[in-house]
Amino acid sequence: FLTLFTQLTTIISNLFDSFLNQQKQKVAVVLSGCGTSGRIAFNVAKSFNDFLIKQNKLPIFHYLCAGGDRAIIAPQEQQEDNVIASAEVFNQFEQKLISESSGEIPIVIYIGITCGLSAAFIASQLDIILSRDQMDENQLKYLPKYVTILLGFNPVYLARKIEIENWPKDKTFFTIANQLDQLSKQSVNSFKHNHSYWIINPIVGPETITGSTRMKGGTATKFLLEVIFTAACIKTFEININTNCDNKINYSDQMFDIVHKLILHYSKTIQSTYDQAIKSLSNIIDSTTNSLRTNTGHVYYLIPQFDNYGLSEAGRLALIDASECRPTFGASLQDVRAFIDGGWQTLGNYQGDFSNENVELNTDDDVFNIDFNHFINKILPSLNKQDNLIIFKLHRPNSNYDFVTNLTNILNIISDKVTNISIIEIYEQNINQIEISNNNLLRLQINLNKIELLPGMPLLAEISLKILLNAITTGSFIKKGKVLNNCMIDVRVSNNKLFHRAVSIIHDFGQQYDSNFDIIKARQFLIESIFFGEQNIDKNNIDFDQVPLSYFVKIAASKERVVPRALLIASRKFKSVFDAEMCLINQPIIRIAIEKN
After folding, report:
1. What's the alpha-carbon Rg for the chain, to the nearest Å?
2. What's the pLDDT tens digit per position in 197-221?
């Protein structure tokens, strides 16, 4: 893997140097994904554009996210299945890129991200690029050249083979991935018809929570992308990294050595974070769990402006973590929220401010308003003792700002309303950590003892913060009862992928009680649960084997407890969906509900 990965990084580095230093060939980087992958694409593109701007270079990074920028805050899962919309997004982007290139046809580094090699949104865009391989030179003359990369964490033979709606029945993600795999073996280190094809799919092992890729898959996606682009920037801008450990990096090093050392930095950062966090992190998880177990408690991530360092980075990661709780754990959009100083302006997304679009979108009230001032003025006055606040800060190396005074001012504002307050701080260098005299404050401090990999970019602090955020919400929802036997049992059935995932979870669970329990029965139980409470639909007139999955998803997407009801029926201890629903109302933790029956 490392050899192939280094070869790809070298090609990207050479393209960076050709455009950013020599202005020979226009280059654009496009990161595309759905859900967590799309949010990571946004985060990485924004970070590296900020870096390039600081180097007085044009920003060349772009992101395509299924459902657009709304998906950064509130999941838009049904858009992930829409291959027609995906193709439109891709074609619009490509035309815009061509129109802005002043007649110079660019090279596009396209990275389609899908952890399980399953996303229809990515399959559709890859299909467009692959179709170019059948064109002749005259047809390709006015189209971009592509370095096409599929990034995921499954072997190609496990790519999804299930039919994709609005596509020919013989075309699946597997057929696309297999075609790309065959072409990749012919085009390493070369362009065939101006195209180059790559599959980067290291196997990182099973997820801690089966069915969720936000922890291992999401974290691996982030640091692999950052390793590629950091290595390319080190070479392009001749940067030396004089770290406080053995893995010093010089721009004159061989690319293999640079890549290897960068991966070691990320690996050691992750291990060091867990080693330092274990005790304080468990206390914070206990606190947030107690809040989420109540009917009135919420968890609020707060990223105020102590200074500008790490503000947008911490804010993006907090917003991403909060947005993932709904599809993963069946949480409401209000259960876990994040607020950042400056709101959407600090976030720096393409489509601008969505703060006032909630009524139009028929979502939870004000969920798109992410400004810290909105929290202070609108949310804070209505908080109760069950609510939980977590403040985040990435500390700038050698900074002289008065952190204690700024934090004290914020605590004075919020502590009258809430007693459950934590602060998570990440120090990049081995400096004296700041003392705060507040005995009621839960405090988690991580000292990375490293310098920045790139000037002004807290990449290692980001990866440290990401895994802490994931641990807090995952641990809290596990303790709330949203996970059983390492499976996310309250997954919201809001797209085709999650429908199939729900069927698989129900099937595996049902086989514990009946070895003859099959996929067909699991699907039947899921559909029965989806239609629970639907008075206006005559199920006798529906051929459930013929209607598209989108029909079921449209009904299920806004419903609560769809999968838990089906699981209780599969346990053979409940005779009907109604009995399962009544049980869950009284006892929402499935394990306890089954044990009591």
Report:
1. 24
2. 999 999 888 777 766 777 888 999 9
